[in-house]
Structure formats: structure tokens, C-alpha cells
Design brief:
Elements (H helix, E strand, L loop, with lengths): L4 E6 L8 H9 L8 E5 L2 H9 L4 E3 L3
Antiparallel strand pairs: 1-2, 1-3
């Protein structure tokens, strides 16, 4: 069985955001607008997405 994945897209700018939110975006592999990343769907990744939920969206494939 394949691991579940989740695709996210950055929709908000990290400019004028707290340093930890910018670091979270980089940790997710995002740093420019409209970039997409497909990551394993783990509790750790879900927590990172929750922290910057106002800057990213989950892409429904």
C-alpha cells in the first residue's frame, strides 16, 4: 500500500510574518508564491500546515 500524500500550494506571502512562520514554510519546501509540494501525510506535516494555514491551501487532485 502506498503512503498517503498531501499536496499544498503557497497562496500567501511570508513578508511581514513572524520568523517561525517563515521557517515553517521553508520546512514544508515552500518559499515563493504558488509553489506546490507533495508531502507524506503525517501528523508532523499536518501540524506544520495548521501553523501556516492562512498562507497555504490543500490542493484537491
Amino acid at each position: 500500500m502506498a503512503d498517503k500524500t498531501i499536496t499544498i500550494e503557497q497562496i500567501g506571502s511570508p513578508i511581514r510574518r513572524p520568523r517561525d512562520q517563515r521557517a515553517t514554510l521553508i520546512g514544508l519546501g515552500l518559499n515563493k508564491m504558488h509553489r506546490r509540494r507533495t508531502l507524506k501525510d503525517t501528523p508532523e506535516v499536518r501540524g506544520m500546515i495548521r501553523k501556516v494555514s492562512h498562507l497555504v491551501r490543500i490542493v484537491e487532485e
